[in-house]
Amino acid sequence: MLIDIHMIQNHSPSNLNRDDLGAPKTCYFGGVLRNRISSQCLKRSIRMSEEFKDLLGGFRTRRLAEEISSRVEGDGIKEKVTKILKECGLDEKKNDTTKTAIYVSQKAINEMAKLVIEKLSDKQLADCFCKLIAEEVAVPDMALCGRMLETGVIKNTTVEAALQAAHAISTHQAVSEVDYFVAADDLPGDDAGAAYVDEAMFASACFYKYFSIDWNQLVTNLKGNEKLAAHTVGAFLRGAALTSPTGKQNSFAAHNPPEGIVVEIKDTPISYANAFAAPAPLAGSRDMVSQSIAQLGQYIHDIDTGFGGPKNRFWFSPNLRQKLEYVKDKKMETLGEQIESLNTLVERLISEIGFNWQDVQNVKIN
């Protein structure tokens, strides 16, 4: 069973995810340059969100030795931990950091800290550390996002991600702009000029976002804990809807929620990005959001007609201000169960999976 999530989200002027030159990220799609937000950026913003914080059971760091030793009192602890991690294939690079960022669970770190003070040989400690890093992975964020780790020593470290996330792309042609700005000196003296002058790139774009969650893989990664998996799905959906990337938000405050969300329960993943292979016109008879949703609705209908529809489909727009529709025989027809609040959307989705949202919210990480 797959849970596919599609979003139309219109952001005011912003620079949520920038490239090495500081400009908003872009890509070509349908022969046209589009604004883009990377999937890595989207996943991290959701994983670190307020909605997901109770399920954040792991973290990625190059300072694993420091994190473990901070939980243990005594002299020479950090040096000892560093030595043990090196035997696990996690060599230091410089400044007490490992060569690669290690994605590890909080539980594994706590257990490693306890073992440090036990009367064990370095070989025994290294074996225990390796086992904990490899096996203590049943936490929601790692179950969703997966883990790729190769040390040459620790075996079976890969966690197959239950989540697939597409790069968000603008439904229309990218139009980037330049903000010429100055910093004024509040005590200018004889110099009336600015204290600092610079330029910053930004853009305003309506994005299509797509996520696909493999329910069976998620349950497997969580060691069969279906209620925790249901909590994870609900928290992820809320995080995706209520969280935006943090890039330059202090300068732009582009905290714009989605205008529409399609959630489907199905067996085969289908991206609806091709609804925008022909970009929404920048100056059409409709506003950009309405045009994007109209193209999405018509494309979904075409896919349903050609390949069959999903088992369940829900359409959410705040207070149903937007409709997901398609044209048939010159009449407008709606798609999916119409939902006007995010809370109801989450409750309906979790109910269709077979659980009660109010109940599974109480399920925490072991």
Tell me what you see in this structure:
- This protein is an alpha+beta fold.
- Helix content is 33%, strand content 25%.
- The chain folds into two domains: 2-55 and 162-176 and 204-360, no CATH class; 59-138, no CATH class.
- The protein is built from twelve helices and 16 strands.
- Strands 1, 2, 3, 8, 9, 10, 11, 12, 13 and 16 form a ten-stranded mixed sheet that branches.
- The longest helix has 20 residues, at 288-307.
- The protein is globular, with a radius of gyration of 24 Å.
- It starts with a strand and ends in a 6-residue tail after the last helix.
- The mean pLDDT is 93.
Annotate the secondary structure layout:
Blueprint: E1 2-14, E2 26-29, E3 32-37, H1 39-47, E4 58-61, H2 64-69, H3 77-87, E5 92-94, E6 97-98, E7 102-105, H4 106-116, H5 122-135, H6 140-145, E8 163-165, E9 168-170, E10 176-183, E11 196-214, H7 215-221, H8 226-242, H9 249-252, E12 260-266, H10 288-307, E13 312-316, E14 325-328, E15 331-334, E16 337-339, H11 342-353, H12 357-360
Parallel strand pairs: 13-16
Antiparallel strand pairs: 1-11, 1-12, 2-3, 3-9, 4-7, 5-6, 8-11, 9-11, 10-11, 12-13, 14-15
